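Section 5.1 Outputs to date
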Amino acid sequence: MVQLANQALDEVRRDYWNELRRADDQQAAKRFKDARWCLLKRPEKLTDEQAATLARIKAAGGEVSRAYTLKEAVRGIFEPGLSLEDVEILLKRLLSRLARCRLKPFIRLGKTIRKHRDGILAAIRLGINQGRTEAINNKVRLITRRAYGFHSAQAALALVLLTCGPISLHLPHELHTLGTG
């Protein structure tokens, strides 16, 4: 959900940047282009310069500022310590805000969230997140990089399974017993 909100925010930001470029305000367009990372990062991870840029964007108001606020509202749903009831209330309010925001990417986001609402609530209720999946993904990428030069994909896959997967190893003398040798 947060990734989709980031993509929606980036779409709004890009549209505004293109407007500035078409209006022949190259200096403003150049200054605004550098705002991408301060909009997408978590507020607590911003550098002082990025925080100042974000403060200027918020002070200026407009679509980009509203999009940033909506993105942070989506992120807020996944804050630790919220009960399922709290999340349900926040989700209901968020969906209402997204439906009324008049920003096409966020209206689309609201429709997507509404479609997957039950799954989102189930994931929160069960405490499921993408942490493990992302960790395994990063391990597989690292192993694939290390496996560069292997003669077959099977060798790289074997290394991935050996490192990440619960596999059962059979000694060579056991293969005859299993009927595979």
